[in-house]
Amino acid sequence: MEDRKVIFSGIQPSGGLTLGNYLGAIKNWVKLQDEYDSYFCVVDLHAITVRQEPKNLREKTLEVLAIYMASGLDPDKTTLFIQSHVPAHSEAQWLLNCYTYMGELSRMTQFKDKSQKAGESIPVGLFTYPVLMAADILLYNADLVPVGKDQMQHLEFSRDLAERFNNSYSPTFKIPEGYIPKEGAKIMSLQEPLKKMSKSDENKNSFIMILDTPDDIRKKISRAVTDTVGVIAYNDEQPGIKNLINIASAISGDSPETIVARYSGCGYAQLKSDVAELVVAELAPIQEKVRQLLSDKSELERIYKLGAEKANYTASKMLRKMQKKIGLIPR
Ligand code: TYM
Asked: Where does ATP bind (predicted)?
């Protein structure tokens, strides 16, 4: 047990989760939980970097935990917890803030995108958000961080910060590696297939939510933007078709080449309808379990309390180590 490599990852409970979150993150985590000592967190403190309605935040936090469990994350094999239940995350963030440069945070593309939308009143939390993410990862000495492509820049920053701290004192943190799934790494918008699928997109047809009804899923995929080439192929000139193939591949495990061969001579409508059925079949059992878990919250409560206990133990040990190296007097 002790020698197993450690994995850490998390998802924000800011609104519902998309098929991108599922294929880019959760589905992979399920595969990794047997092999690694894993921590999967609902990062509620990250979610409040943009304004959340309190009732909604509470609901979404439990919903994300329910989706984790319904997707196959097994609390007997992995630690599932809520970020704000482990105060070491916020404390470690403060410490790490003191080793972070304004310049490097200003270069984060996610910050640049989000701050443009926020205009004059950009919350400081949005700026220091990658430092909290670094704290999440480094507190558990994670070897591997399974994320979609969009989070790689934040992970690079966590690595830089770990090295900076290690060099300032003595080896403290492992340098975490990113782990990106092959086909689900970046699920694109169904309406603008050059853009990432994102729940914050204004066009509701551009994303599929994990909890969307089968009919909505079918409708959204049938309306997915494609091209006028008319041949099913896997290349960057046909990003809409490529995205549908990636979705099919991430769900079925078949390679894009196998899928292209299967559809030789077929039209786009056939591909769309098959991909829709694949997605519906993948998500239906998850939705059913989510409903069960949310109808009686006692099981969720038991799991997040257990998870917080385990995570607190590991994280506070690392926090004490950091404090000691910095020169803070032990309690
Ligand atoms: P978040 O909540 O935006 O997304 C959660 C995970 O889903 C992946 N993802 C996607 N993958 C493929 N295609 C997409 N369209 C897509 N959209 C989202 C993301 O890459 C991510 O893996 N800062 C992080 C959460 C976080 C975290 C951490 C992650 C906080 N602390 C520590 C890893 C380790 C975030 O906002 O992810």
From this structure: 12-14, 20-21, 148-150, 187, 196-200
Contacts of 78 (CB under 8 A, 6+ apart): 29, 33, 38, 39, 40
Q: List where CATH 3.40.50.620 sits in the chain.
A: 6-185+296-326
Give tens-digit pLDDT for 251-270. 999 999 999 999 999 999 99
At 132-171, the pLDDT tens digits run 999 999 999 999 999 989 999 999 999 999 999 999 999 9
CATH number, span 204-291: 1.10.240.10
| Mutate-to-test residue for ligand 1 from 147, 154, 159, 180, highest number of ligand atoms within 8 A of CB | 147
Give the SS3 label for residue 289.
helix
Going by C-alpha positions, the residue among 133, 124, 70 that lies closest to residue 96 is 133
Q: Is the Cα torsion angle 318, 321, 327, 328 positive or negative in sign?
A: positive
Q: How far is the CA of 21 from the centre of ligand 1 (A)?
A: 7
Q: Phi and psi dihedrals of 323, rounded to 5?
A: -60, -40
Span between the terminal Cα atoms of the chain, in Å: 30
95 to 91, 139, 318: CA distances (angstroms): 7, 12, 12
Closest CA to 179 of 159, 157, 153, 149: 149
Query: What is the tally of helices (H) and strands (E) in the chain?
Result: 14, 5
Q: Which fold has domain 6-185+296-326?
A: Rossmann fold (3.40.50)
Q: Which residues are near ligand 1 (CB < 6 Å)?
A: 8-12, 20-21, 24-25, 43, 46, 133, 136-137, 145, 147-148, 150-151, 154, 184-187, 196-197
- Are 187 and 247 in contact by the 8 Å Cβ rule? The answer is yes
Q: Start-end ranges of CATH 1.10.240.10 in the chain?
A: 204-291
